[in-house]
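Priority: medium. Attachment 1 of 2:
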């Protein structure tokens, strides 16, 4: 028993617990049984011992956490652990744009003219100037005295060059942050002034390297700096001492230039005249280096993919790794499609800066990312995202006696809370709007809010096909509320049809039929077609047939639907998001909460039943 009391406890990490355990241990010794630790100089020594033990415990705990990818928090640790899985985090990316440039009044007229590479094109966003450069020479011929350079690719950034003399033991560092590694060009010359050089390519897989392969590797160091290194003469060619390396690259301005769509030419004058520049696409693709959470998510999945595309997770990992503009990715096999389509893999990507991919971006993913690693018999097919815009109407009741905020201030707080919920939980594939979370979020905005009544509608926008008899289909996945009362569940925005000046709409009759109608000058409702389509309330689907739209009366062609449940879920290529221009917030002073006599008779009730 005496031996047991002399054992020190090692399971305590808190400072006070460590000190108490030391006292308990010493008190069990014969020499300190009646010693007053608090009233002696020994107390200072115990403080030092407890502090040192606590400090070492904390340091050890942090160090152990940094040894595992799941628990690591320092970027250097995460990058190092990802490297062991063969994963290099994505670098910063430069924004790109395409422009058409024209010379209309040349002072002389050669048959052929070339726009040299690396000519500056200027633009500005929010008062900040950015410079883009054309990445390569572009040659054109005269047509009627006009020279047109079409779809010239521009890249934003600061072009830099850095050189090294090759010698044994030398580390080749790119001494700049926010380098876009996709722009890195590595050249080797025998002498600094040699006009001939060998271009090295980035190494994709060591299985494809031999002793003569001119490739390079890149690893991230601290503070976002990169080191370039080469083969050892067995796996990859080993550069010769005494030769010279030149690194050419762009330093990105990250997301800043995204959205630029007005450019002016500031380069060398051609044919004695300037260029008229018109953007064919706005600037897109500027991005920050891959963040820590993304690295922790992608590294093990790309490692599991083993550099091939077989499972749906393989496809997702490859796209996230090699296409940093992807904000959210969903992939499903043809056998899981509705209806099944065997032999295909369906891919849907939500970009960070637009609503859907361009055709050129789809081709890049298909040909450069997926095709080299996919099974030949499987055909990838890209599907555009389908957005469900949720209209939210909030009436919040508050107790004015305990609030120091005005109704307008409370309204702003509620809006910001819903925006944050939208950014964090929605706007991605498999996002779910959970009604209980939403209303609780409103209640917790301020202590003065006592309750809220929140109504949800779902808006699905279509691109109208003008002057064509067309069919429109919607599969909302979520059941649609069916009250059996006409116009209670589905209604469209207004549009015009041929041979009439009346604004027409579509609603449901409560029995599963969609009706085409209009209102006359006295607001009488006239049914033009009682069955222009059908709605399946249980399955959440609707279809409109043989509808010809000549123009829109409202800003967009939308169907507004009342869901059976206020939990809105998505599947496949669907994305749910808050329709911010349809977020309505009203703050009401609740007299009953303030304790006023007979205040209940003046209570303002809010209906959640009607569609409008």
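Attachment 2 of 2:
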């Amino acid at each position: 028993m005496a031996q047991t009391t002399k054992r020190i406890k090692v399971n305590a990490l808190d400072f006070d617990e460590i000190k108490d355990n030391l006292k308990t241990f010493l008190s069990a010794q014969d020499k300190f049984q009646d010693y007053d630790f608090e009233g002696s100089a020994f107390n200072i020594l115990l403080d030092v011992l407890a502090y040192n033990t606590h400090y070492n415990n904390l340091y050890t705990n942090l160090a152990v956490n940094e040894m595992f990818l799941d628990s690591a928090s320092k970027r250097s640790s995460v990058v190092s652990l990802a490297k062991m899985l063969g994963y290099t985090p994505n670098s910063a990316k430069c924004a790109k744009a395409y422009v058409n440039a024209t010379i209309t009044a040349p002072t002389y007229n050669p048959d052929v003219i070339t726009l040299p590479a690396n000519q500056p094109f200027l633009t500005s966003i929010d008062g900040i100037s950015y410079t883009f450069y054309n990445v390569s020479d572009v040659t054109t011929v005269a047509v009627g005295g006009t020279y047109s350079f079409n779809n010239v690719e521009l890249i934003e950034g600061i072009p830099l060059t850095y050189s090294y003399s090759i010698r044994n033991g030398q580390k080749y560092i790119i001494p700049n942050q926010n380098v876009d590694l996709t722009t890195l060009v590595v050249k080797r010359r025998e002498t600094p002034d040699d006009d001939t050089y060998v271009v090295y390519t980035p190494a994709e897989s060591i299985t494809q390297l031999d002793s003569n392969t001119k490739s390079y590797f890149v690893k991230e160091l601290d503070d976002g700096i990169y080191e370039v290194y080469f083969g050892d003469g067995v796996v990859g060619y080993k550069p010769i001492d005494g030769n010279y390396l030149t690194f050419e690259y762009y330093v990105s301005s990250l997301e800043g230039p995204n959205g630029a769509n007005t450019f002016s030419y500031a380069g060398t004058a051609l044919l004695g005249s300037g260029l008229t520049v018109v953007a064919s696409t706005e600037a897109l693709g500027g991005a920050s280096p891959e963040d820590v959470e993304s690295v922790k998510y992608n590294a093990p999945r790309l490692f599991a993919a083993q550099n091939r595309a077989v499972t749906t997770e393989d496809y997702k990992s490859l796209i996230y790794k090699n296409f940093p503009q992807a904000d959210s990715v969903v992939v499903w096999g043809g056998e899981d499609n509705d209806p099944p389509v065997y032999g295909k893999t369906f891919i849907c990507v939500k970009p960070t800066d637009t609503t859907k991919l361009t055709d050129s971006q789809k081709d890049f993913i298909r040909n450069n990312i997926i095709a080299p690693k996919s099974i030949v018999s499987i055909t990838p097919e890209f599907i555009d995202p389908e957005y469900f815009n949720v209209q939210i109407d909030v009436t919040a009741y508050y107790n004015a006696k305990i609030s120091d905020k005005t109704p307008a201030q409370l309204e702003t707080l509620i809006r910001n809370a819903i925006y944050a919920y939208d950014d964090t939980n929605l706007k991605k594939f498999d996002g779910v709007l959970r009604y209980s979370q939403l209303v609780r979020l409103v209640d917790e905005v301020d202590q003065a809010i006592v309750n809220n009544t929140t109504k949800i509608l779902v808006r699905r926008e279509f691109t109208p096909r003008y002057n064509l008899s067309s069919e429109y289909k919607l599969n909302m996945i979520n059941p649609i509320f069916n009250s059996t009362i006409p116009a209670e569940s589905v209604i469209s925005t207004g549009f015009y049809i041929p041979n009439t000046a009346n604004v027409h709409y579509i609603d449901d009759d409560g029995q599963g039929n969609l009706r085409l109608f209009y209102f006359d000058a006295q607001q009488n409702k006239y049914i033009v077609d009682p069955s222009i389509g059908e709605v399946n309330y249980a399955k959440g689907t609707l279809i409109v047939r043989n509808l010809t739209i000549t123009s829109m009366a409202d800003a967009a062609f939308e169907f507004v639907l009342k869901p059976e449940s206020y939990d809105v879920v998505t599947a496949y290529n669907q994305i749910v998001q808050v329709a911010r221009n349809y977020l309505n917030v009203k703050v009401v002073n609740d007299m009953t909460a303030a304790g006023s006599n007979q205040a209940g008779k003046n209570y303002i009730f809010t209906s959640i039943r009607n569609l409008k």
